[in-house]
Amino acid sequence: KPVAVETRHLIQVCICFLNYSFTCTSGFSLQDAFEVLAESHEFNDMEGPCLAFRRAASVLKSLPWTVQNLRVTEDLPCLGEHSMCVIEEILQHGRSFEVEKILSDERYQILKLFTSVFGVGPKTAEKWYRRGLRSFSDVLAEPSIHLNRMQQSGFLHYGDISRAVSKAEAQALGNIIDEAVHAITPDAILTLTGGFRRGKDFGHDVDFIVTTPQLGKEERLLTSVIDRLKHQGILLYCEYQASTFDESKLPSHRFEAMDHFAKCFLILRLEDSQVDGGLQTAEEDRRGWRAVRVDLVSPPVDRYAFTLLGWSGSRQFERDLRRFARMERRMLLDNHALYDKTKKEFLAATTEKDIFAHLGLEYIEPWQRNA
Ligand code: DGT
Ligand code: MG
Fold this sequence. Notes:
Largest sheet: 5 strands, mixed
Number of helices: 17
CATH class of the largest domain: Alpha Beta
Number of domains: 3
Strand order of the largest sheet: 2-4-7-6-5
Order of helices and strands: HHHHHHHHHHEHEHEEHEEHEHHEEEH
Strand content: 5-15%
Bound molecules: 2'-deoxyguanosine-5'-triphosphate, magnesium ion
Radius of gyration: 22 Å
Shape: globular
CATH architecture of the largest domain: 2-Layer Sandwich
């Protein structure tokens, strides 16, 4: 099965190239070009330029108009010299030679293929590439490669979980989780978060926050939910991480570090009959179900607002908000807490609005955070 879907993935890379070429000639390609540049720098472990290109892509995404000439970009923030050169080249020639070189580079293509598997990050992908592996079949046939459980599930369900999850599917999963959570703890709090909370129509997974009104009960809730999903026969994969949260620790300045709350990364079986309008592909319709990635995080209720803000994203918005807190307010913000370095104290919050107010910012709705 992975070999068949691998062909599909390579076709997708080609489509990406064609998309890029097409959009270049029609003048909408700048954002795609920056995404490719960011990813290529990520594969080369160059965090600074990677984030700079992600920020540039984000600025262009936020514009209500299309960039038609270089002059209009002069007053835009976050566009460095390199980004400006790429914009100039695309505006002049309808293409970026640097981006085209990356897209046709074998290493880039293979790392993109390998990192598309759930559980495979850039470091593992690079390790496999260095060993001379060039395809899924190479990886699966290599006796010295030990796949961890997450990667095994990633290969097993590759076709399903590399396809976007629709809003209707997210809604159906919400019903399943809601039923499980409230059967265990009737007054539990369940919130859809991540991209779907920001109003996106599609996502790569569905993210939820679950907590209990009584402090300390939340962790047991999560393990009970997992047991219930297992009992229902819909749990295809589960990685559970117990809480390592320490309330005396200052918020982390590194966005990439995941939070310390109890959480689980799941793959669930979603039945066709549970989705309004049915599943999306003919194959899944025939089979009657699809596999979907779901993340559950379970903070103590007094950290709920910070977790909600942190998990609602987008990643770029989160990075920028933390940066703003640090640079403009001398405050440290993460998914656990907000700390005022001047007053040397933690600032409590029960809603996202409280956090925006502490930061001296006007509240913005989740759908306005799609940076
Ligand atoms: P998606 O699922 O591709 O439609 O997009 P999102 O925005 O739902 O992204 P996802 O599911 O990867 O993550 C949900 C949110 O959790 C994301 O918007 C910000 C937060 N998040 C994700 N990864 C990290 C991470 O590595 N560190 C921290 N601090 N937060 C993260
Ligand atoms: Mg998500």
